[in-house]
């Protein structure tokens, strides 16, 4: 099972050899300075967002790899029925979210707490993850609204 570790000034997602094969990449390494929020999500499926790009997506079994969306890409290593440690990253990082399943709630809470202690600038304004940006709702074919007359 994948693990999140702090090594020096970096957050490293260490993958097992099977997860490396499934994701078609090695361990993920991002600077701790890029971490902006750490949360624990009890429902694994809530950590999935966007469309699958590269990896293995077996519904009900495991989700490993990269998912793309309007804000960029997420890297996930998820197993159903397990809590997920979600690490939101600043736009300068290669991913916007790292989501890794933990064996149980206590290990997920311990992993999240160690990341919060190690990261220099955590946004603690809310315990929830931030929503993804939504594309402009006025797509092509929508007429422009006339400007209001000021009389």
TrEMBL record:
Residues 124-151 are annotated as: Disordered. It comes from the Bacteria. This is Uncharacterized protein. It comes from Streptomyces roseochromogenus subsp. oscitans DS 12.976.
